[in-house]
Specification:
CATH topology of the largest domain: TIM Barrel
Strand content: 5-15%
Oligomer: single chain
Distance between the termini: 60 Å
Helix content: 40-55%
Shape: globular
Number of strands: 11
Structural class: alpha/beta
Radius of gyration: 23 Å
Largest sheet: 6 strands, parallel
Order of helices and strands: HEEHEHHEHHEEEHEEHEHEHHHHHHH
Low-confidence stretches: none
């Protein structure tokens, strides 16, 4: 392994450790947009995602008679009855002027921007240049998700990509997402519903994040829980291929259920050494999963079977939350957990009911810089929903304070349900209400009011 490769690998590990530490210290809030990494299920079912395509260039080394890499991946999946999720780009040909980075480095495809499938070969990849490959993927039952139109970073990423140009704010990010969304709608009548940010950069200039952009688009955030490898160059192609399946084999030997509900990350394109180990490694991965009784399906089907990370679909909380989710309620946290035993706070109650309705209001509130309540800053995740709850009469603020962290009382629950749902729950002591109990309460009231 080269020093460059080692450096990149160490940088990635350091980044993940840093991100884990940040997550441990950062409060998690309810959100209309959930980060989908894996879901809770006892079924042997998982999903595979392929970034950066479609790619018209052949695999390297080419052992498939010159077939486009994307077609090789689709045909390999289909031999096993599997469906893939292809996280595509639109067109990177506008990402110039630029210069090619050092071969084998993180900037191999461009110093200032990414270029897919390679520097100077933008016309061999992306939705715009490969409509036949998109049509072929859809005909094979595979899923298309958005990796943005131009694959330009949403914000600055100092570690590894510190020299990269990035979009200047929320509006340019949304505009870029809309370009790919419209291309899929106009070309194939296909509704994109999931997206993954370029290089997982979430921060957007102006105090926004990718979650704000996805909320405006009506998307969910597609992440992954298992790295299928292949993107990092090793000493030989054979070593790169082995890296795609050997860790999977080890995990399955230790625990045959290890991949239940997992989302696997892959590349529909070249690694930093301009090789494509996924072309040969995918068959080994699928054989391993097949031997252990797994079905490989799309991320959307995975979510249909089990929407949440910490609640089985057959559980009482999971069933009730799914019904609320289908009606537009924000029942899950940003990390896609339900946490049914957690106490329900006033801020969470407002967010559950009004989160999707106040997506644009949240953006306007952040831009205004005006605090809606004495105890809530404009950037508070629940600020816009709290404003809506108070204005609708479903909740109250006293002396200009909303008290977002206070638990919901029985009186407040009755007022909320009467206003929002037109019915009140049974008059029992509901102080200390948990999320799970609230799901069941609202589920029953919704059954009495089907149009609520």
């Amino acid at each position: 392994m080269s020093l460059v490769t080692k450096g990149i690998g160490l940088a990635k590990k350091a980044k993940h450790r840093f991100q884990d530490q940040i997550r441990e210290r950062t409060p998690v809030y309810l959100s209309p947009v959930r980060r989908i990494e894996r879901v809770a299920t006892r079924e042997r079912i998982c999903a595979m995602t392929f970034d950066d395509g479609p790619c018209r260039l052949p695999a390297n080394p080419d052992r498939f008679r010159g077939k486009a890499l994307t077609l090789v991946l689709a045909e390999t999946l289909e031999r096993y009855g599997a469906k893939g999720t292809f996280d595509v780009v639109g067109d990177t040909s506008a990402n110039y002027p630029d210069k090619a980075g050092k071969h084998g480095s993180a900037s191999w495809g461009g110093v200032a921007y990414d270029h897919y499938p390679d520097f100077g070969k933008d016309d061999q990849g992306g939705v715009v240049h490969c409509p036949d490959l998109i049509a072929r993927l859809l005909a094979g039952g595979h899923e298309i998700t958005s990796h943005t139109y131009s694959h330009v970073l949403f914000g600055w990423k100092p570690l590894v990509y510190g020299r990269r140009r990035y979009l200047s704010g929320l509006d340019p990010v949304v505009e870029d997402l809309k370009k790919l969304h419209q291309a899929m709608e106009e070309g194939w009548g296909y509704p994109v519903r999931l997206s993954r940010p370029p290089h997982y950069v979430d921060g957007i200039r102006g105090g926004f994040t990718s979650y704000d952009a996805y909320a405006l688009m009506g998307y969910q955030y597609m992440a992954a829980s298992f790295d299928g490898a292949g993107w990092l160059p090793l000493e030989t192609y054979e070593a790169e291929v082995e890296a795609t399946w050997r860790p999977m084999e080890k995990m399955l030997l230790e625990d045959p259920d290890a991949f239940c509900g997992q989302i696997i990350f892959q590349k529909d394109g070249f690694n930093m050494a301009r090789r494509t180990p996924v072309a040969d490694g995918l068959d080994r991965q699928l054989q391993l999963l097949s031997d252990h009784g797994y079905k490989v399906t799309t991320v959307s089907e995975l979510l249909e079977r089990s929407p949440f990370r910490d609640a089985l679909p057959e559980s009482e909380a999971g069933q009730a939350a799914r019904k609320l989710l289908s009606r537009g309620w924000c029942v899950a946290y940003q990390d896609n957990t339900l946490r049914p035993d957690a106490p329900l706070t006033r801020g969470e109650l407002a967010m559950m009911a009004y989160g999707w309705e106040t997506v644009r209001r949240r953006v306007a509130l952040i831009r205004s810089g005006r605090a809606p309540f004495r105890d809530m800053e404009p950037r508070h995740p629940y600020a816009a929903a709290a404003m809506q709850a108070v204005e609708s009469g479903a909740m109250t603020a006293v002396d200009g304070r909303f008290r977002p962290d206070d638990p919901v009382t029985a009186v407040e629950l009755a007022q909320f349900c009467a206003t929002r749902l037109g019915r009140t729950p049974p008059l029992e002591n509901r102080d200390g209400l948990t999320h799970g109990a609230f799901f069941r309460t609202v589920e029953k009231l919704l059954e009495q009011q089907p149009d609520a």
